[in-house]
Amino acid sequence: MKKTWLALAVAGGLGVSACSGAPSTDAVDNNAMGTAGVSLRNLGETEVAAPAPPALTVKGDLIPTPSDTASRYFLLRERRAIGGTVIAIIRQEHAGRVAYARTEVDCERRLFHVLGVAPRRSLVETSIAYDGPLRPIAGLPLREELATYVCKRSNIPLGAA
In a 3-state reduction of DSSP, which class is residue 28? Predict the structure, then answer.
């Protein structure tokens, strides 16, 4: 009887921790990436990136990024969040590798941050790479280019600088 209770307690504890919303280390080691900021420009060069498959199932829309000509960025999907921000899934292709980022953009206030990064599209929806609160895009050309494209696609005007 004691073994049964112990097994149930352990199983119950694992179930709670798996659903607790705690950061997952499957897709990215937050300490290695640094929780203070995630560099989208260099994401394809980190351990988060994976070798590019021969064919990508979701092509996405190429985002013009004149500030980063070494990589190609694709918008895979965007959706409005309850609070009015836009959640976007972006793929970076760099030197035969791919990485995915889930971002949040507040178009009207010109704010941006990264919610998750992963080596595969299927993992980026649940990975956590919180790089702090929404922050201004001023002075960050790549984030400004990505935010501009995401907002335009969402039919939300980007606020004045």
Answer: coil
